[in-house]
Amino acid sequence: MRSTVLGAGSWGTALGAVLAGKGFPVAIWDVDGAPLATIAARHENTRYLPGIPLPETLRSEPDLARALEGAELVVIAVPSHAVRPVALQARPALRPGIPVCSVAKGVEVETLMTMSEVLEDVLPVDLHPYLTFLSGPSFAVEAARGAPTAVTVAGRWDRVARLVQGAFHTRTFRPYTSSDVAGVEIGGCAKNVVAIATGLCDGLGLGANARSALITRGLAEITRLAVAKGAVPLTLLGLSGLGDLVLTCSSEKSRNYRVGLGLGTGRKLEEIQRELGQVAEGVLNAKSVDLLAARLGVEMPICGAVHRILYQGEEPRAAVRALMARETRAEG
Ligand SMILES: NC(=O)c1ccc[n+]([C@@H]2O[C@H](COP(=O)([O-])OP(=O)(O)OC[C@H]3O[C@@H](n4cnc5c(N)ncnc54)[C@H](O)[C@@H]3O)[C@@H](O)[C@H]2O)c1
């Protein structure tokens, strides 16, 4: 299946490698020529996935229209804030009937739209049934190395979700399908904010009880937000919800967890972000999730605390005291 990946960062390159590893001809494009150049010259993305050999059928293409020529599957793998401009640029070259798979995790800050809403806003109606959303517990470096990875592909049209599932399925990469686009999208976005909270908790040395409580209550608030967007609560117990939350909250490989960890040990956000050198989407997601929760009237105390710490200078320990002092209530 001839495929095109838009975005040659960590995840785009890893997914390109999964597809190309099956022998599919894969063109990979990025606005930045640097990663494309190293993929072309050395079959390696030295910036985003150093040391991992990439299949020869993964071909760099700096011209967007040429990259999309003849594509039978289009993967959008740029950070959530770049999905709109990239989709706008790609629009003239996208043909109806070709599945588009977005893998970005986020809600657009300016509009509070999820990625499906952004893509439906930008792309013509006849492309909408072909939109799918891949999410789940997946560190790019592990998937690219062929470590067993399971994800969810959500799509409103089951036939298309199954097509994308089949395209990505390998001996080490196992996609499931779901028709719950909102549930899969909100899980993938809001877990980044809870990951920052968990990093903060560990940075402050609050202990294992506190971390478990944060993850569990974090999942409760993510579920409330997802349900307000029309999701089925059970989706949040799946790979794109609980699965991704566990991954992001329990490993220093997660940029969002590392942001929280740094803040919890008293470092400045700008310094942590500079050191990461890559987008920690949870920082933007903290803003969009907080605004979306307010718009929908959903109570999200943990995500709200992360937002205040990041954007309003609240002291992390004061935020913890405030969370513990909230009025007691029934679990749920
Ligand atoms: N890295 C992972 O392990 C992983 C796993 C699952 C999902 N994701 C999601 O995939 C998306 C991409 O993440 P990533 O880790 O690959 O990011 P990254 O920071 O590694 O790379 C992002 C790429 O997007 C490109 N880009 C940025 N702005 C652009 C623009 N305006 N136009 C065109 N290209 C642009 C950059 O040049 C870069 O090559 C995110 O939404 C992330 O949440 C990442």
Largest sheet: 8 strands, mixed
- Provide the residue-averaged pLDDT: 96
Order of helices and strands: EHEHEHEHEHEHEHEHHHHHHHH
Helix fraction, binned, reads 40-55%
Structural class: alpha/beta
**So what's the CATH class of the largest domain?**
Alpha Beta
Bound molecules: nicotinamide-adenine-dinucleotide
Strand order of the largest sheet: 3-2-1-4-5-6-7-8
Number of helices: 15
Question: Overview of this structure, please?
Answer:
The protein has two domains: 3-179, 3-Layer(aba) Sandwich (Rossmann fold); 182-325, N-(1-d-carboxylethyl)-l-norvaline Dehydrogenase, domain 2 (Orthogonal Bundle), CATH 1.10.1040.10. The mean pLDDT is 96. The protein is built from 15 helices and eight strands. It is α/β, with parallel strands linked by helices and 332 residues long. The site of nicotinamide-adenine-dinucleotide has 28 residues, from helix 1 and helix 4. Nicotinamide-adenine-dinucleotide (NAD) binds at residues 7-12, 30-32, 35, 48, 77-80, 82, 85-86, 103-106, 138-140, 278-279, 281.
Task: Supply the key terms.
binds nicotinamide-adenine-dinucleotide; 2 domains; 15 helices; Rossmann fold; eight-stranded mixed sheet; alpha/beta; N-(1-d-carboxylethyl)-l-norvaline Dehydrogenase, domain 2; globular
Describe the secondary structure blueprint for this structure.
Layout: E1 3-6, H1 10-21, E2 26-29, H2 33-42, E3 58-60, H3 64-68, E4 73-76, H4 80-90, E5 100-102, H5 115-122, E6 131-135, H6 140-145, E7 149-155, H7 158-168, E8 173-178, H8 181-203, H9 208-228, H10 239-249, H11 255-264, H12 269-276, H13 281-296, H14 301-311, H15 316-325
Parallel strand pairs: 1-2, 1-4, 2-3, 4-5, 5-6, 7-8
Antiparallel strand pairs: 6-7
Helix pairs in contact: 4-5, 8-9, 8-10, 8-11, 8-13, 8-14, 11-12, 13-14, 14-15
Nicotinamide-adenine-dinucleotide binds at residues 7-12, 30-32, 35, 48, 77-80, 82, 85-86, 103-106, 138-140, 278-279, 281.
